[in-house]
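Intended use. Records like the one below are meant for learning the mapping from a protein sequence to its folded structure. Do not use them to infer anything beyond what is encoded.
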Amino acid sequence: MTAATHSTLFPQVPETADAVLDGLDPEQREVALALTGPVCVLAGAGTGKTRAITHRIAYGVRSGRLQPASVLAVTFTNRAAGEMRGRLRQLGAGGVQARTFHSAALRQLQFFWPKAVGGDLPRLLERKIQLVADAAARCRIRLDRNELRDVTGEIEWAKVTQTVPADYPAIVAKAHRDAPRDPAEISQIYAMYEQLKRDRSVIDFEDVLLLTVGILQDRHDIADQIRSQYQHFVVDEYQDVSPLQQRLLDLWLGDRDNLCVVGDTSQTIYSFTGATPDHLLNFRTRHPGATVVKLVRDYRSTPQVVHLANGLLSQARGRAAEHRLELISQRDPGPDPVYTEYADEPTEAEGTARRVRDLIAAGVPAGEIAVLYRINAQSEVYEQALADAGVPYQLRGAERFFERQEVREAGIALRGAARAGGNDSLLDDAEDLPAQVRAVLSTKGWTSQPPAGSGAVRDRWESLAALVRLAEDFARARSGATLSDLVAELDERAAAQHAPTVQGVTLASLHSAKGLEWDAVFLVGLTEGMMPITYAKTDEQIEEERRLLYVGVTRARLHLTLSWALSRSPGGRASRRPSRFLKGLRPGSGSLGTVASGGSGSFERGAAAGRRKPRGPVLCRVCGATLTEAGAMKLMRCEDCPSDMDEALYERLRDWRADQARELGQPAYCVFTDKTLMAIAERVPATGGELSSISGVGARKLDRFGTDVLAICAGGDGGAGHDDR
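Structure written out for the chain above:
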């Protein structure tokens, strides 16, 4: 999903320092050669910024101008840090520290705490939400689950902006920030939270930065010791630096200026966490002699996608917009973006799933497709639609690849086979390294053909298949490599969290998609109130929403689809409007200037793409209320209305589904979801028409399973079986 995994995984290590520069474009080469003094790299989406800065570090190390241990590269996610370490290792600069701000600070805090404070470092609190709940209870303030999450976020924002509890109400008012509760109440909870941490001898992630800053400010001897070790700093995603992180960076630097920052003001999307582009925008003011390089050659996206991205930013306003970069695509032309309007959200999800399935059938790997939405709550209807369509998917934010149980088990098996060598009968007929890996992993569930559908079974297979592909790439890149060599490579990649690609359509929020890319991207739910989100009120908040959509657009390499629904539920009033950000970009929406109006793309309505006719409002068959939630509409009743489900029928359907799933090698929900089985058991259909009227029973499933289900509903055992269509 990233450039690192999309290209060759095992390039040859460059033989010389000059060879590190091979293949860089003129601007990237300029970055790599700028090894001294302050350097500011303004890098647009898809322009190869990670390539530029890793080659810069590697060239400095390989040429002898930088000592590996003297370089500290910091970024914002463990994934990005792992990718950076992996690339540096491939370039022959494996000794460089590449960490997140928190990881680097925690390492220093653990080392210097006994000297600076004495005793052991307090325990690090992994999740603060329970402690916030305890603090609210102590203050006799009642918070529901959503309020608890929001207040926790406010405390995090206050800490990274270095706001103490007593000052919180005034700072919130000055910043025109919408607090989730009365600021005085949040101030009270915040103060109690800090007190409880002291009482329980724990610290949170923000404290890691705050305490490190405090030690470096108070103990000049410790600050000098750190500065003597780290002589050169690189900061990726500099537009996302918070005031607290900038303060820590200043203390690391001291009075030196060997700093390289990389960022793009048009991708500032985390202001709610305290991030601000001001540090990037003011860099040349703070460092008048800085070398400034702009990267605008977009190697990721087609001219059609880049044109849309540029058009989107051409409408932007504000200081960040004044520094936007006009991207220039370096790829061959591709298909125009597709804009699709649907009648309602379930229809939009079903239409998206159908298009995803068509792309997969046309040869686009599932792992190269993403469905991106504004908030995580939108994922459920797409999970359901993809499951109903038999499309494998994965939710962004799942556990790390090398921490998955099946990957750990596979590593143990491969390590054992490597130790056994020729004494392992499994390897008797394996002629080369990939064949050996396939033989070993076949004992853990890998097969030459994937199981159909998605879910846990498919997820496990995909993890093992990713290891097989890794072995194939490794063998091609390292002639004569042994199983022991591969095990060592896996250990190094696990330490760097440099994971191979796992297949499966990605479902992710726009925020969590930052830094990733796919061949095909579906941007869904693009309506006013969702994009921009309804609580974005100020001009700057609106502009950040525009930048968030820009990030979504620039995730696509080739195929891009943008869609919206006119109502939330089937039959609802078509009162929604497509996002204002699409005005002048989508066909028929008017012109907003030469850049925006030159756009191309096709506009479709969901019905024109084969949708069934709009349905009337879905009413609860028990109380008559209008239903809006997908699960309730499937059951045709409110979730809390009494059920008249035939429990015995439901259990027979579940037993039948388990047999079908086992026979097909699919997870159970790819046959029918629990909600669909409940709906069938409540309505007890007698005909194909009655069965097909239940949400989740489409034409394909009716054709495949209808005879069995109707037989079970009639009192039979459903033994007719399914065909293999």
